[in-house]
UniProtKB/TrEMBL annotation:
Residues 62-65 are annotated as: G3. It is a peripheral membrane protein. An essential GTPase that binds both GDP and GTP, with rapid nucleotide exchange. Plays a role in 16S rRNA processing and 30S ribosomal subunit biogenesis and possibly also in cell cycle regulation and energy metabolism. Residues 126-129 are annotated as: G4. It comes from Yoonia vestfoldensis SKA53. It is found in: Cytoplasm; Cell membrane. The keyword Protein transport does not apply. InterPro entries: G_ERA_dom (IPR030388), GTP-bd (IPR006073), GTPase_Era-like (IPR005662), KH_dom-like_a/b (IPR015946), KH_dom_type_2 (IPR004044), KH_sf_prok-type (IPR009019), P-loop_NTPase (IPR027417), Small_GTP-bd (IPR005225). Its main location: cytoplasm. Keywords: Cell membrane, Cytoplasm, GTP-binding, Membrane, Nucleotide-binding, Ribosome biogenesis, RNA-binding, rRNA-binding. GO terms for molecular function: GTP binding; GTPase activity; ribosomal small subunit binding; small ribosomal subunit rRNA binding. This is GTPase Era.
């Protein structure tokens, strides 16, 4: 038996869209719990991934990217991001090494003193393989002059460089206390929502520039079958009739390939057979419907201008 006391704490990952937060979360947890694409603004809900490290439990909050909001959905996502940071025991600001102190990063830095209070904030400079060492040192200096970070880490979330050092530091920061989740649980999102996120990721990857953010996916039904498999029915909401045709593709080829890819990933995640059925529905005003926000784990009121 290990006599060391148990520890548990919340770690919020914040930063601009596409800074690598979801990639880092998935690496820390050791499984894919957050949507990862080359598209910006893909994380909508505050996804919690649970990582075990000895007697410590790190609960990672992968927040939506912080950016200048234009629509109700944007405003709700930004509010969720700052809310996730405010609730955390420790915060990690991720920036991209090659983009440096962009206007978006400067805006985040300006908000940190008021938003964070006494909460420790670490800086994680990601994608370090894209910049020479002298550039990294200059960026580290400039960032720490702009805000008093508790620690700075040079990482590559995709390749894993520097992630162990960051993880060890985070373990040291979280308070002693009982674990907040079962040892074998890796995420606190309902499986229905994780499955919907996986399908949305496949759609985002497949459709590229055509329908970046005008769709959402909801798991309408999840039926456990006697043979141990599960039947999953999902609805894909789009805003216009023309979008429905794009999602379906010629002869239904696009949705067929999306369904196959999503089904394979969901099966790998749950470890048993899955039967996935997708249906596309046109809802012109889904971006203004309270129910859609609840399904995404967002607060509809946060989208008010």
């Amino acid at each position: 038996m290990n006599d060391a006391p148990t520890k548990a704490g919340f770690v919020a990952l914040i930063g601009e869209p596409n800074a690598g937060k979801s990639t880092l979360l998935n690496r820390m947890v050791g499984a894919k719990v957050s949507i990862v694409t080359h598209k910006v603004q893909t994380t909508r809900a505050r996804i919690r991934g649970v990582a075990m490290d000895g007697q410590a439990q790190l609960i990672f909050i992968d927040t939506p990217g912080l950016f200048k909001p234009r629509r109700r959905l944007d405003r709700a996502m930004v509010a969720a991001a700052w809310g996730g940071a405010a609730d955390a025991d420790v915060v990690v600001l991720m920036i991209e090494a090659h983009r440096g102190m962009s206007e978006g990063v400067k805006a985040i830095l300006a908000n940190l003193p008021d938003r964070m209070g006494k909460t420790k904030v670490a800086l994680a400079i990601n994608k370090i393989d894209k910049v020479k060492s002298e550039g990294l040192l200059a960026l580290t200096r400039d960032m720490n002059e702009a805000f008093a970070f508790a620690e700075t880490f040079m990482i590559s979330a995709e390749r894993g460089h520097g992630c162990d050092a960051l993880r060890k530091w985070l373990v040291d920061q979280v308070p002693e206390g009982p674990w907040l989740y079962p040892e074998d649980q890796i995420a606190d999102l309902p499986m229905r929502m994780i499955a919907a996120e996986m399908t949305r990721e496949k759609l985002t990857l497949r459709l590229h520039q055509e329908l970046p953010y005008e769709l959402t996916v909801e798991t309408e039904n999840w039926e456990e079958r006697p043979d141990g498999s599960a039947r999953i029915d999902q609805l894909i909401y789009v805003a216009r009739d023309g979008h429905k045709g794009i999602v379906l593709g010629k002869g239904g080829e696009t949705i067929k390939q999306v369904s196959q890819a999503a089904r394979a990933e969901i099966m790998e995640f749950v470890g048993r057979p899955v039967h996935l059925f997708l249906q596309v529905k046109v809802r012109p005003n889904w971006l203004e419907e309270k129910e859609r926000y609840s399904e995404m784990g967002l607060d509809f009121k946060d989208g008010n201008a």
